[in-house]
Write a structure and sequence with these properties.
It comes from Merismopedia glauca CCAP 1448/3. Keywords: Metal-binding, Nickel, Zinc. One of its GO terms (biological process) is protein maturation. The structure is a single chain. The strands form two sheets. Strands 2-1-6-7 form a four-stranded mixed beta sheet, with helices on one face. Strands 4-3-5 form a three-stranded antiparallel beta sheet, with no helix packed on it. It is elongated and about 55 Å long. It has one domain. The protein is α+β, with helices and mostly antiparallel strands.
Length: about 130
């Protein structure tokens, strides 16, 4: 199952970071960006996260998912459009096939919020 493996990878990434922290902070929130075009179901991801973090250092952490829409760019028309996932992957004006995806394929950790002495966060992709 897609979401289960993805969650495993996500937890491993967070754990690597956490293990490197001298004070082992309490993680409160893990923020994710999930593109619509990854076909990952946020609800399934949340469920997998809950199940897999049980009795771990992430047991009290909340998974917060921000979904990004699928946005493509049409070169002949020089404009962005929003393809309809599973229905229509071409420019609505000139019908050129979708080739340049600008958004919607992301799957990354935005940041991790945790409590140490002060409220802090870690942003692995910045
Ligand atoms: Zn076009």
């Amino acid at each position: 199952m897609h979401e289960t493996d993805m969650t495993k990878a996500l937890i491993m990434t967070v754990k690597d970071w956490w293990l490197a922290q001298p004070d082992k902070p309490q993680v409160s929130q893990v923020h994710l960006t999930v593109g619509k075009f990854t076909c990952v179901e946020p609800a399934s991801l949340e469920f997998a996260f809950q199940v897999q973090t049980r009795h771990t250092f992430l047991a009290n952490a909340e998974l917060i998912i921000r979904e990004t829409p699928l946005i493509a760019f049409c070169h002949p028309c020089q404009q962005e459009y929003r393809p309809e996932i599973g229905i229509q992957y071409a420019c609505p004006i000139c019908h050129s096939p979708m080739e340049d995806i600008r958004s919607g394929r992301e799957l990354k950790i935005d940041r991790i919020e945790y409590n140490s002495q002060v409220e802090s966060y870690y942003a692995p992709n910045l």
